[in-house]
Amino acid sequence: MKKKLPNIFVNKIDKKICNNETVYCSFNSNKDNIEVVEDKIDIDEKIKSLFNSPNYVYKIATTITLNDGRKLEKNIIGKTSGKLITIDEELIDIKNIKDIEL
User: Fold this and answer.
1) Secondary structure element (H or E) that encloses residue 100, with its range
2) pTM of the model
């Protein structure tokens, strides 16, 4: 009951293959600085949890760390689609926020 299986095509390899070396070398030769981008979803979740907390009635006293390293102590009263509104009627871009704390 032995059946002969069909032959499989096998291509001849007549040169040295160094695909991995080329990829590895090109990866190392790239000297561009890779900037680590933090998840903006994390900031959005923090803002959402601040507004959904039982302590929030009208304003939230927060410390906001911006992407350029500045720290702002602001009272947040609301949120639009892409900005936070402070009690001083300032608008702060959410995409410029690195971290937000109580």
Assistant:
1) strand 97-101
2) 0.55
